[in-house]
Each structure stands twice: as structure tokens, then as C-alpha cells.
From TrEMBL:
GO terms for biological process: proteolysis. Gene3D superfamilies: alpha/beta hydrolase, YVTN repeat-like/Quinoprotein amine dehydrogenase. InterPro entries: AB_hydrolase_fold, Peptidase_S9_cat, WD40/YVTN_repeat-like_dom_sf. One of its GO terms (molecular function) is serine-type endopeptidase activity. This is Prolyl oligopeptidase family protein. Pfam families: Peptidase_S9. Keywords: Hydrolase. The keyword Iron-sulfur does not apply. It comes from the Bacteria. Residues 415-627 form the Peptidase S9 prolyl oligopeptidase catalytic domain.
């Protein structure tokens, strides 16, 4: 079926919710005197650099419609711009995927050049994280590169950002993982994962020689090497020792001794000192936003002062100068759709740098509430409920269930453009952290294994029943919308858990589980790759090609769909291929069930283009208002 044209609806202009954030990647220079950020207008992005003494413009460059993913300062005179594009690396047999580039912008010359231009004979794309060491004019860049010609090895290079010249620092096998560097730029640890034997090993360098200090069988859950620990004598690993629980551990570089990195909570992320890059604290996502705990006393005192200055708001640390006197934070909540603040601790002042969504005034932002409810088997499911703007005492509202992707991810407290855009039309929006979500403890995550289309799905409809029992929503006016895994859940709603919803919108959703896992195997080049084992465990399959997955695949249950379905999918999606939506559309066509299919040309898996993001949001709202009018 051909999709209908989206039509404007009542309420504030939907367009202002679907715009890309006007301000992104706000970063302080190491000396705290300059500020770099990405300014976004429509599809156009520009690097902007200010002198903080008077906020004068001292540099910048237009990036156009390039997808800018991050900024990092290299000393105080240069900025590293990381971008991505959907492409392939035919020279190395790399399948079509999102590949990264690094460009260096020099403030003094106002010129940009590719980070890897000075390295001949290597694949000209970033294949690993970039590390920056040193300060001022002595700052240099380290990254791993892959040769275009045999032998197939992995090389760690030191690159001088002033002239692009590279110097080989380390040589490793092709299955080597990332390196950990100390403050001097010396490699002190690295990892290796041998797919054939499923062996993950940690190596540290002593007296100029590499040695293995730990190895483990890791067919699915490979440990993670996360950098230096609290001192340069140890590295930080997330893993599970033979006689302990999975968690964060420091491993001695010299002796290989394990020590747990203990907090009163299971960290969701680690905080590092801006100079030493040692562990300075950790954070955890709570119902009220991220909570930061610092090991460094000065950083802790500073953060408490910041926290007290912005009561009731969700605060995120964006950037810190090396002397800790200047801090950039991002706030949301209480009608704040996203504000960046610069705090000068020495002067005792704060100023607003800019707004992520400058056209979204407080009265256009709905209240977001943390909720908890019991699933059918008694398991507690946390989540968030966003109300239409201006609604404080909700009764009998129409509902949109908006499950997150992953599924090993989670929703958190804070402004969500998609949820707010739907709420602006008059819908309550439920974002449940169903079983299988990450960041809520191992028990919550592992409860989702094998539960695609089963308890992971009924966790969503149990949320509907809870809100209905509270009188908040009308159970006869419910639709489901989601992307990626959330797109699968949207398709599973009318096909595997009927009688709950009136319509479903799937963005880049998985419809045929068995075909999806087989595609992942082909991408990895191995039938027994870790990614295949991971999907089989989460989906509940025993082997590649397991036909038991068909019963939980919406495409195989299309004839049972009891609600109309809208399918939207980016043509350049390299995570969930467009074929997944095509397969579902063909199955619904054969079954004679109502559906629409919209192809988002030039779009990837993450809705990185404003034009296609706007189209997705408009098509979604048009479909919801057709099949589940809010008023």
C-alpha cells in the first residue's frame, strides 16, 4: 500500500519537536579559555569556536550535511571532529556499514584535514577509538589502523596533529582489541579476542614485553577493558573473575591482582579526571536522572555545588577544564527541553551557552513522571510517563506505548524529543524499561533472555493495564510506536499480544527473527560469531536457523494482526536491514491486513537526518490520529 501524505494536526507545530538539536557536543578547551560546539540548522552543521573572555568567534568551519558525532580538543589550538557516513570498505572486505572519519581543525590556519591523510598504505577510516595525550602544543593523537595489503595486522600509530606525520608505536595481530595508554602515551595494556576459541585475554606490558595476565572463555559476554584505574598501576576492566561476580575491577599491571572497584551502587558509567584520565568517580541512572559520585574530593565538592544550584533539574556533565575551574553542564526537566550552561567556579558565575531546542518553550514541554508497576508474574517494571503539555491531573487519556531499542538499553529521566512530540498531540506516552533492559541490574537484564515476544512483550501491555486501573488512560485508545527492538515490539503488539492496541508504528523494526540472525552471521563472516550467540540467547534460539523463532516473528504471524500497521525504515540502515520492513509488508499484503510502508531515503538506523526525522514524526502522528484520534 502507498503511504498517505502526512497532514498537519492541531496543537504546537510538530516541526519544532522533530528538529535536530540546535547545539551539540559542547566542549571546553583543556585550559578553559575556549569553547567548541556544533551548531545545527536544518541539515547543516557547523563547528563554532568561541573565546570565553568575550565570547568572540575565533574559528569554525561549515560541515554541511555531514553527520558529526563528536568533538575533542587536541591541546588548545586544534579540534578533532569525528563524523560518520554509510559506506563500505571494499579494499578490506568490509561490508556496507557506518564508517568513521576524523578531521583536525586548526584554529591558527582555519583549515581542516583528515587525521589519517599522512598514513599511506592504510585503510583511511577510523576503526577504533582515538586517544589524545599530552597538553598544549605537545598534544598528540593515538589510534589503531589497518593496512590495505598483507600481512593482516593491527598497528597503533602516534600522529602529530601539526603535520599529520605518523609513527608506529605497537604492532599486533588482527584480532587485537583496544590499547590502554598512560599519561605519557605509552601502551600499558591491550586485549585480544580469538573468535575461533572464544578466548578473551588481557595483556600488560612489563619491561618492554607483553605478557598475558588473564584470559577467559567468553563465547557471548566478552569483558571490557575501560582504561586506567585509580592509578597508573592498574587498568579498569568490566568482567567476571572465576570466583566472583561480574562488575568493575582494577587489575594490577605488574602483578595481575584483581581488586573490585567498589561503590554503593552498580555504576552505569565511569567518570575520569580531565588531566590524569584516571578513574575519578562513577554515575548511575536513577528515576530522577543521573547521580554522580566522585572519588576525587575536589571534584565531588564542585559537583555538589553545581547540583545545589540547579534543584529539580536533570543535570548531565558535559565538559570540564583541566584545572576544574570551568564546567559545562546540560539540564532538562521542569519545562526545560535542554539548556547548556557554562559555570566559572573561580568567578562564581554561570551563564547560558545555548539551547538544544530554542523554539520549545516551557509550556510546550509535558511533565515526565517516573512510575513503577508489577508485571503479570510480579516482576517490578520501572518506566516513565510523559503527559501532554499543561496536563497535571490526567484522566482517561489516549496512550502511546513507546518501548526503547536495544533491547539491552534503557530509557532515562530527561527530555525526549519523540515522546514530547507525541505528547504534544494530546497523548500520554509510556516508556517502560521492560525486562531485558540494561542498567537495572543483571537480574532485570537476564530476565529478558529468551523472552522476545513473550514476557518482554506482556511487560508492555501490563503497563497499559496498570495505567488503565489508575484511571490515567483509556484502555480502548492505545497505540504502540517504537524503533529497532522497539519496532519489533510495535509489530509484536498486534500479532503476538492481540487485543491491546488500536494501531502500531514500527521504525526500523525486526519482523523475521531467524532471517535477522542469519543476516548478522553473514555480516560477521562467521556462523558462530559472538553477535550470533548473543542474539540466539536473547531471542531464545538454540542454533543459527532455529525455526522456533518463526513463532515469535511478526512476519510469520501477520495473518493474526488485529490492528493497522505503519512501517518506516531508513534505506541506509546497516543495523536492521530495510528488508525486515519489506518482509513484513509482503506478509501483511498476503494476509490482507491493513498496512503502510514508508521508505526513508538516505536515512540510517538512528534518524540522523532532520528531513527524514521530520517525515517519520509527521507520518507517525498522521497515522495515530487516523486510527486513534486524541480528541
Amino acid at each position: 500500500m502507498v503511504a498517505q501524505e502526512a497532514t498537519p494536526s492541531s496543537g504546537p507545530a510538530l516541526e519544532i519537536y522533530g528538529r535536530m538539536p540546535a547545539l551539540e557536543s559542547v566542549r571546553l578547551s583543556p585550559d578553559g579559555t575556549r569553547l567548541a560546539h556544533i551548531a545545527v540548522v536544518g541539515e547543516d552543521r557547523s563547528l563554532i569556536i568561541h573565546d570565553l573572555a568575550d565570547m568572540s568567534l575565533i574559528g569554525g568551519v561549515r560541515a554541511g550535511d555531514t553527520k558529526v558525532r563528536d568533538l575533542d580538543w587536541i591541546g588548545n589550538e586544534r579540534v578533532l571532529i569525528t563524523t560518520t557516513a554509510t559506506q563500505s570498505g571494499a579494499a578490506l572486505g568490509i561490508r556496507r556499514q557506518e564508517l568513521s572519519d576524523g578531521q583536525i581543525y586548526d584554529i591558527s590556519t582555519r583549515r581542516v584535514r583528515n587525521l589519517l591523510d599522512g598514513l599511506d598504505g592504510f585503510f583511511p577510516k577510523l576503526t577504533d577509538a582515538v586517544a589524545i595525550r599530552g597538553s598544549g602544543e605537545d598534544a598528540v593523537v593515538y589510534t589503531r589502523v589497518l593496512p590495505l595489503q598483507p600481512p593482516a595486522r593491527s598497528y597503533l600509530y602516534r600522529i602529530d596533529p601539526s603535520n599529520g606525520r605518523g609513527q608506529r608505536v605497537e604492532t599486533g595481530e588482527p584480532d587485537m582489541g583496544g590499547y590502554v595508554l598512560n599519561a605519557a602515551g605509552e601502551a600499558v595494556a591491550r586485549t585480544r579476542y580469538q573468535v575461533r576459541t572464544s578466548t578473551w585475554s588481557l595483556h600488560t606490558k612489563r619491561n618492554g614485553f607483553w605478557r598475558t595476565v588473564w584470559q577467559t572463555d567468553a563465547p557471548i559476554d566478552t569483558p571490557s577493558l575501560l582504561g586506567l584505574g585509580r592509578s597508573e598501576d592498574a587498568v579498569l576492566v568490566y568482567g567476571q573473575p572465576e570466583d566472583g561476580e561480574a562488575g568493575y575491577y582494577e587489575i594490577g599491571i605488574e602483578d595481575g591482582v584483581w581488586s573490585p572497584l567498589s561503590f554503593d551502587f552498580e555504576p552505569d558509567f565511569i567518570i575520569r579526571h580531565p588531566i590524569t584520565r584516571l578513574v575519578a568517580g562513577a554515575g548511575v541512572n536513577t528515576d530522577q536522572g543521573a547521580d554522580y559520585v566522585f572519588l576525587d574530593q575536589r571534584m565531588g565538592a564542585i559537583w555538589r555545588a553545581v547540583r545545589n544550584a540547579y534543584p529539580g533539574l536533570v543535570i548531565r556533565l558535559e565538559s570540564w577544564s583541566e584545572d576544574l575551574n570551568n564546567v559545562v553542564i546540560h539540564t532538562t526537566g521542569g519545562g526545560d527541553s535542554g539548556t547548556y550552561h557554562l559555570i566559572d567556579l573561580e568567578a562564581g558565575s554561570a551563564q547560558v551557552i545555548g539551547y538544544a531546542y530554542p523554539d520549545l518553550n516551557a509550556d510546550l514541554v509535558g511533565e515526565m513522571r517516573a512510575i513503577r508497576y508489577a508485571a503479570g508474574d510480579g516482576m517490578e517494571i520501572p518506566g516513565y510517563l510523559t503527559l501532554p503539555p499543561g496536563v497535571t491531573e490526567p484522566r482517561d487519556l489516549p496512550l502511546v506505548v513507546l518501548p526503547h531499542g536495544g533491547p539491552a538499553a534503557r530509557d532515562t529521566m530527561g527530555f525526549d524529543w519523540w515522546a514530547q512530540g507525541l505528547a504534544s498531540r494530546g497523548y500520554a506516552v509510556l516508556q517502560p524499561n521492560f525486562r531485558g533492559s540494561a542498567g537495572l541490574g543483571d537480574e532485570h537484564l537476564e530476565a529478558g533472555y529468551g523472552e522476545w515476544g513473550l514476557k518482554m512483550q506482556t511487560d508492555l501491555s501490563d503497563g497499559v493495564r496498570y495505567l488503565a486501573a489508575e484511571g490515567i488512560i483509556d484502555p480502548q485508545r492505545v497505540c504502540i510506536v517504537g524503533a529497532s527492538y522497539g519496532g519489533y515490539a510495535a509489530l509484536a503488539g498486534p500479532t503476538l499480544d492481540p487485543g491491546v492496541i488500536r494501531c502500531a508504528v514500527s521504525v526500523a523494526g525486526v519482523s523475521d527473527l531467524r532471517t535477522m540472525v542469519q543476516w548478522s552471521a553473514a555480516q560477521a563472516g562467521r556462523r558462530d560469531s559472538p553477535v550470533v550467540r548473543y542474539w540466539n540467547r536473547f531471542m531464545g534460539a538454540e542454533r543459527l536457523g532455529d525455526r522456533s523463532l518463526d513463532d515469535r516473528s511478526p512476519a510469520f504471524r501477520a495473518a493474526e494482526a488485529d490492528a493497522p500497521i505503519l512501517l518506516l525504515h531508513g534505506w541506509d540502515d546497516t543495523v536492521v536491514p530495510y528488508d525486515q520492513s519489506r518482509i513484513m509488508a509482503e506478509a501483511l499484503e498476503r494476509a490482507g491486513r491493513p498496512y503502510e510502508l514508508v521508505r526513508l531515503d538516505g536515512e540510517d538506523h538512528w534518524l540522523s537526518r532532520e528531513a527524514t526525522r521530520q517525515r517519520m514524526l509527521n507520518e507517525t502522528v498522521r497515522f495515530l490520529e487516523t486510527h486513534n484520534p486524541p480528541r
